[in-house]
Amino acid sequence: MRRSIKSTTRKSIVSLPLAVLMMALLLSTGAFAQQPASETDSWQFGVSIYGWFPDLAGETAFTQPGGSNEFKIDIDDILDNLKFTLMGTFDVRKGRWGILTDVIYMDVGNSQTGTREATIGGREIPVNASANVDLDLKSWVWTLTGYYRALDQPGMTLDVVAGARYLDVEQKVNWNVTGNVESIPVPDRTGAAEAGLTNWDALIGLRGRFAFGAKNAWFVPYYFDIGAGDSDLTWQGIAGLGYAFHWGEVVAAWRYLYYDLSSDEPIKDMNFSGPAIGVKFRW
Fold this sequence. Notes:
Elements: H1 2-32, E1 43-52, E2 55-64, E3 68-73, H2 75-81, E4 84-94, E5 97-115, E6 119-120, E7 123-124, E8 129-153, E9 156-179, H3 186-189, E10 190-212, E11 218-229, E12 233-244, E13 248-260, E14 267-282
């Protein structure tokens, strides 16, 4: 019964912002549907290559170093332990209709050598023992959306976005305890634990920009989406500052991505938060 009440409460919390956003989308499309587009009906393409430098935080099902279920990997540790990353977007539009896809892959880790701030097999490490602990996190985040350009003016655009986001996360922790380990059972002195998940979520949202300055070269881009599915709730927000050239644009922004995952998942919740900078080429 407790789980049912919690689930109902969570769904009510999720449904409110979804309803508000849906109303905003309907009002925006109704208000701007009759406005002429400033662009032609020819095909337009854009490719972005960017770097996003987020801190990673969340809660996992198994105990982390320090005896807590919560984990956090700071951007300094990410840069020191980054194994591979891939980030980019592709945008295609004809008239008012378009498709946008965004792909993020990160393989990062965190290590603690000779630490005593850990629990192994539910037991604290003895005073005269130490452990080497390695934490590794691999993640795919793929967003695929279609959009409708509800507002297209020289200094302002507004797109109504709908689509899906795919999340694949694999988290591993390995440990090796040395020293006086008599109080720790032999099977627990060296080992590994693993947690992972794969899910899809439906999304709705808004994106656009406000331009200013000479020839509207400077602009403030924004993006927001919210959704649910395999996740109880996911939302993403992006805002920043950019400058447009004849060939494309350069953008610096702050990006936040949050997941509230199902209670039976090995990873309970996680968020990515940090600055991003990128270059977009368009033709």
